[in-house]
Amino acid sequence: MKKNPFAKRHIIETCMKVIMLASLILVTGTLGLILWTIIKNGIPAMSWEMLTQVPKGGFYMGKEGGILNAIIGSLYLAGGGTVLALVCSLPIALYLEAYLGESKWGSYVRLALDVLWGIPTIVYGAFGFAVMVSLGLRASLLAGIIVLALIELPIMTRAMDEVICRMPLEVEQAALAVGSTRLEVALRVVTRQMLPGIITAVLLAFGRGIGDAASVLFTAGYTDRIVTSLFRPTASLPLAVFFQLGSPFPEVRARGYAAAFILTVIVLIVSFGARLLSSRLGKYTIK
Amino acid sequence: MEPHIQVKDLNAFYGKQHVLKNINIEIPRNKITVIMGPSGCGKSTLLKTFNRFFELTEYTRLTGNVLIDGQDIYNRDVDVTEVRKVVGLLAQRPAVLPMSIFDNVAYGMNIHNMKKDRNKTREAVQHYLEIAGLWEEVHTRLHDPATGLSIGQQQRLCLARGLAVEPEIILGDEPTSALDPISSQNIEKRLIELKKDYTIVIVTHTLRQAKRLADHVIYMYLGEVAETNSAPEIFTNPKHERTKQYLDGIF
User: Fold this and answer.
1) Residue of B68, B86, B97 to mutate when probing chain A, most A C-beta within 10 A
2) How many Cβ contacts (< 8 angstroms) between chains A and B?
């Protein structure tokens, strides 16, 4: 009964454990390193001004001002894009579940969504730009929102689809057994069961939307003013990071890191908020 | 008395597999009818044709008629949701809906717009929870998640939910097989109480339960109805060789 640590199976077990632990350390270590870098480089430039003011004259040479324009712009862009994507993707996901299911058409739709998911965001940006040019439109908040919604749509729909697929069949049948229509099952039962998962899907999409620079570069433009109309260009945080990090002035580069820090904090706040919300709403779900 | 459910020349197929063969039976009103038979004989399938759950499975085909009060439920202009409102189902494992205890019972009433206001709904919820013998246990926590109940309580909640849409027929697909003995007994007691108002059809593979509950028995074998008769008759004097063997525990 004595354990032989050099038996082949024990050696394999130990090796695997080491590999798994190493991967864990690699991932968490990377996250830590990212946070440390933006905090270390960004904190010196962080100030109340950064959060509450728009760029003033000479801002891009290290003079006073802030990036309120980019913060507001990013919230509008990602918020609007996420709402628009949600409005379209929830019906698609429910339709996939309730009517298409595992059928041939269902798999075609899923394939199309997966392909869309894989397309680089710069392609979406270029596509949006081409459409805008052909219609004679200029870069604007609305165009940015629409392109972000297009980027977020496949992510959200597929994430919801995966969540909805895990809906217990017996629960659906229980609702059908008292005479529900398919739509009533989808709206009153499936969405309730899946609410926490749907929130996670929305969050995932929002995170991708708010962090994307390539798509808004062409479609939303950039401006030092706070956007007041859907038809005007707007600044965004990823582009604020991009422009400022490329500056020859060290003060401006520090502000780039500070902008990255703000972006990260926004994503963290939204993540924790969504977690809290989904654990409250998850009270009734069937485990 | 006129039978409540009539099945005429019913044949059912899963793909190419012929699972129900020329079924012709009548199910009496306000009685407990028990469908018995060895595993895979088609008893659950037969039950599923009564509330049109059979068609939920893909690649299935059905010929023949199932008549409830003389009306063919497979007729083109019959609304399937109305059929399922009239024919309730108690599943093998209780499946509560992802909502509170109260909302589970109120669900069916809400989708069918049966109650005019919240007060009427509340009264009805209490009424059906009482019938299901659950009110005493849950009345202080009606708005807690239904998943917090024990399996036995969940099955009684499912019974209350089914009764709340005012069905005439209750189907039970081995409704006590997932429950402990005491909870099973509780459900059996409810079913016996309920038969004065409802027609009940139960599938079971426990012979003793069949003997406790049945007024009328359908014995199935390999997709066919081997014998159907009143309970005392079939248990004391089975006509068919297969039934006799089953009752004696020989296969």
Assistant:
1) B97
2) 75
Cβ separation of B95 and A171 shorter than 8 Å?
Answer: yes
Taking CA–CA distances from A194, the nearest residue in chain B reads B98
Burial class (CB in 10 A: 0-12, 13-18, 19+), A11: exposed
A188 to chain B, any CB pair closer than 8 A? The answer is yes
Q: Residue B147: its chain A contacts at CB < 8 A?
A: 284-287
Q: Which residue type occupies B66?
A: V
HSE-up (13 A, CA, CB side) for residue A233 = 16
Identify the CATH number of the domain in which residue B68 sits: 3.40.50.300
Provide ipTM, 2 decimals: 0.90
Q: Flag whether B107 is in a domain.
A: no
- Domain presence at residue B111: no
pTM for the structure as a whole = 0.76
Cβ–Cβ < 8 Å for A195, A182: no
Contacts with B175 from chain A: Cβ below 8 Å: none
Alpha-carbon gap, residue A266 to A78, rounded angstroms: 11
Which residues are B67's β-sheet partners? B6, B72
pLDDT digits (tens, 9 = 90+) for A199-208: 888 988 998 8
In a domain, B241, yes or no: yes
**B46-67 per-position pLDDT tens digit:** 999 999 999 888 889 999 999 9
d(CA A113, CA A85): 13
Instruction: Please tell me what DSSP assigns to residue A227.
Output: P
Q: Does the beta-carbon distance from B96 to A174 stay under 8 Å?
A: yes
Q: Is residue B68 part of a domain?
A: yes
Least confident of A55-69, B11-25, B220-234: A55-69
Q: Are A177 and B100 contacting, i.e. CB atoms less than 8 angstroms apart?
A: no
Domain limits for position B80: 5-98+168-178+185-248
Max Cα distance, chain A (Å): 81
Number of domains comprising chain B:
1
DSSP state of A118: H
Query: Chain B within 8 Å of A170 (Cβ-Cβ)?
Result: yes
- Residues of B within 8 A of A106 (CB-CB) are none
